[in-house]
Structures are given as structure tokens and as C-alpha cells.
Amino acid sequence: MADLAGALSAYLHGLGERLGPQLQAAVARLEHAYTPELLEAVQYTLLAGGKRVRPAVVELWAQSVGRPRPAEVMAAAMAAELIHTSSLVLDDLPSMDDARTRRGRPCCHVRFGVDTAILAANAQLMLAFELLGGLDAGHGGLGATALLADAVGVRGMIGGQHVDLRLPAQQRDLVRLEYIHSHKTGALFVACARLGARLGEASAGEEELAAHYARNLGLAFQIKDDLLDATGHAAEMGKDARQDRGKPTFVACLGYAESEEIMRRLLDTARAALDRLPAASAHLRSLCDYLAARRS
Ligand code: GRG
Predict the structure, then answer these.
(1) Any atom of ligand 1 within 6 Å of the Cβ of 128
(2) Which residues are CB-neighbours of 292 under 8 A, at least 6 positions away?
(3) How far apart are CA 292 and CA 51, in angstroms?
(4) pLDDT tens for residues 211-252?
(5) Whose Cα sits closest to atom 29 in ligand 1?
(6) Is residue 281 within 8 Å of 56, Cβ to Cβ?
(7) Taking Cα atoms as reference points, which of 19, 124, 138, 12 lies closest to residue 68?
(8) Does residue 50 have its Cβ closer than 6 Å to ligand 1?
(9) What pTM was computed for the model?
């Protein structure tokens, strides 16, 4: 178990090392005159670290079902991280979560101003869709752009975030909380797993298995995030703690122990999906253990 965790950590570290320069170069290629801080802001949160879990889901599913082309997997992994980072920059804004720290640094809007942060997040998103469009052009039937657009849009992150922002506390029950989590966080995990599976030329059954794994992993990921917000340390997490104070999260509604139990059951379900795919990467299983144990 310890060896597998070590192997996953090494893998995630290596993925970060491969991804960072590619992301940096992709942003640097965007031509821009007069206000250099725009590209600085686009790179700022993107290159500040981050666990790179969503790119890992893309790559590991691609490798679990076939022999994908590395350049295509890298482009898809970059798109996943760009979309994720843009959502963090937007989520941190004063009109949303009003956070001050992200990935161990002042948030993008704290460093560059709200106006530049909004533009930088949108630029990250556009760069992601440029990469996805390129994948679609070279890989018939992939459907990468539509897949990720759906995951970001009203049926995904944007829809989940709006319910989280605006649904009155007294209307929040477990069904609606699950809706929020599975949309604002889970939808991107599912799209990453599906995209990876498609890049590996998965059968329809394998792609559904990937989606089932990611649906459970994604929901568990957000519950763990709520648990960390309630109990973690800002310095260790690299972001503000107690941001959810007063919000009816899983932890607020069910308490710590029951929320943790639900998270563990979701991770068991994700692991069980892997049992049906003998060639699944061992890292996909380790990701479930890592997620439960993570402290940041
Ligand atoms: C992208 C157009 C667009 C809209 C997004 C703001 C928003 C709409 C949705 C919020 C999505 C969000 C930030 C959900 C929380 C997900 C979550 C648990 C983030 C933390 O992810 P980690 O722990 O962070 O993987 P690192 O820094 O490690 O990458």
C-alpha cells in the first residue's frame, strides 16, 4: 500500500513536471502587446503547483484502455488543467468565494485585480478549447470540444456553481447537495475520464466504466474538500480554510464522521469499477486511497 502511494506520488510529480513547461509555452505563444501582465496573470495560478489530479485522470484512463498517442494525451491533459484552473480563479473572486489564497499564493484577483483575473480565467478557458478543437480536428469522432463544453456549462460546473451560490440554505437537502457537488466538481472529472478513454479508443462499455469511476471519485473529492475546509490548516492546504463556514455542506448537514463514511463508500464504488477492467492502471486505484488521505 505504501509503495503504491509512493508510486502515485512520483507519477503525479512527474506529470506536473511534464505539464508545467507545456502549459507555460502554450500561454507564452499567445501574442499580446502593451499589457504584459495579462499573460503573467494567465500563467500565475496555472503554474503555481496544484496536484494535477484531473490531467492524471485523463492520462491514466487513456493508458488503461489502449495505446493513445502521447501528444494527444498531453493536449487533453493541458486542456483539463486549464479548465480546472480557470474555475479556481473564478471561484476565488470576491463575488463568489471571496478567497485570498490559492495554491500557496495570493489569489489571481488579489495579485492582479478582479478585472484582469476575470480576463485571465476566460483566456485559460479559450486556450483549453483551442486545444480541444485541435484534438477534434485530428481525431475523427472524438467529440472532445462538445464533451468538455457540456462539463463546463449549465449542465456542469457553471450550473452547479450557480445552485451553490443562490439556493437558499433551507432548501438544501442531500439530494440538492449531491447535485451541486456532482455538477460543480464531478462533471469535470467525468469528462476527463471519458476523454482519456476515448483517446485510448475505448469501447462504449469501457467509456461508461471510466465515467462511473469518475462520477464516484469526483463526488468523493468534493466531500473530502468540505472535510478539509472544516478541519484542515491553511498553510498545509495552500488556500484559505473555513471558507464554508455557515454554508450547508455535507459536513454541516451530516457531521464529520458520516460525511467521511459516505466519501469512503463512494471510493469503494470507484475501486469496484476498476475491478471490471483488468488492464486498469494501478494508479487509478491509488488515486482513491490518495484522495481519502490527502491533506491539501
Ligand atoms: C470554468 C467558465 C467556468 C466556470 C466555472 C467557478 C465555477 C464555474 C465553478 C466552481 C468549480 C470549483 C472551483 C469547484 C471546486 C472543485 C475543487 C474541489 C477544487 C480543488 O481542486 P484541487 O484540490 O486543487 O485539485 P489543486 O490546486 O490541487 O488543483
Answers:
(1) no
(2) 220, 224, 263, 264, 267
(3) 14
(4) 999 999 999 999 999 999 888 778 778 888 887 777 778 888
(5) 50
(6) no
(7) 138
(8) yes
(9) 0.96
